């Protein structure tokens, strides 16, 4: 998976936020009351609104030379910036979207093509589907859409 944007300084929404749990690359994240990053979710009763996307993992030390390598996970306790606008290449999407379809926040940082339903569920459009290129699913993320919680 690859997460990119044109100008990181413009598109980065927050700087140096601490991960409250391990967060995979491309995961939609939100901020809890403790000010740390967690997987965003639309779960009834415990929704966490997506405010950004993880675009880099933790730095890991390898071998005697201590060569710095990036992981595909931002480890709990490590700090990172997050993107508010991004393009995800080789995205994992729940459902089968068509070109231009809106995409939504799913459970535990997931992206879904299905509009969430159920009382108390958070409905947050997170972007749209751009189709496939060389077999990779392309998603454009824009976390500027309004959200709503479904009522009875």
Class derived from helix and strand content: mainly beta
How much helix, percentage-wise, in residues?
A: under 10%
Number of helices in the DSSP assignment: 1
Termini distance? 38 Å
Described by the principal axes of the CA atoms, the overall outline is globular
| Average pLDDT figure | 80
Total count of strands:
17
Write the H/E string, N to C: EHEEEEEEEEEEEEEEEE
Largest beta-sheet characterization:
8 strands, mixed
Short structural description:
This protein is 3% helix and 47% strand.
What does this structure look like?
With 152 residues, the protein is an all-beta fold. The strands form 5 sheets. Strands 1, 11, 12, 13, 14, 15, 16 and 17 form an 8-stranded mixed beta sheet that branches. The protein has a 3-stranded antiparallel beta sheet with strand order 5-4-6, with no helix packed on it. A two-stranded antiparallel ribbon has the order 2-10. It has one helix at residues 8-11, and strands spanning 2-4, 12-18, 23-24, 28-31, 37-39, 52-53, 59-62, 67-70, 73-74, 79-83, 85-89, 93-94, 102-105, 111-112, 122-133, 136-142, 147-149.
């Amino acid at each position: 998976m690859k997460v990119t944007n044109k100008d990181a300084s413009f598109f980065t929404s927050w700087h140096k936020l601490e991960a409250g749990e391990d967060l995979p690359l491309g995961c939609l994240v939100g901020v809890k009351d403790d000010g740390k990053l967690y997987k965003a979710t639309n779960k009834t009763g415990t929704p966490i609104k997506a405010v950004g996307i993880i675009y880099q993992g933790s730095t890991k030390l390898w071998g005697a030379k201590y060569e710095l390598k990036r992981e595909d996970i931002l480890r709990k306790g490590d700090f990172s910036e997050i993107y508010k606008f991004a393009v995800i290449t080789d995205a994992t999407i729940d459902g089968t979207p068509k070109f231009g379809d809106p995409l939504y926040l799913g459970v535990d940082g997931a992206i879904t093509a299905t509009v969430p339903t159920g009382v108390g569920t958070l409905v947050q459009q997170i972007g749209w589907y751009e189709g496939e290129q060389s077999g990779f699913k392309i998603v454009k993320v824009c976390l500027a859409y309004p959200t709503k919680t479904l009522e009875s």
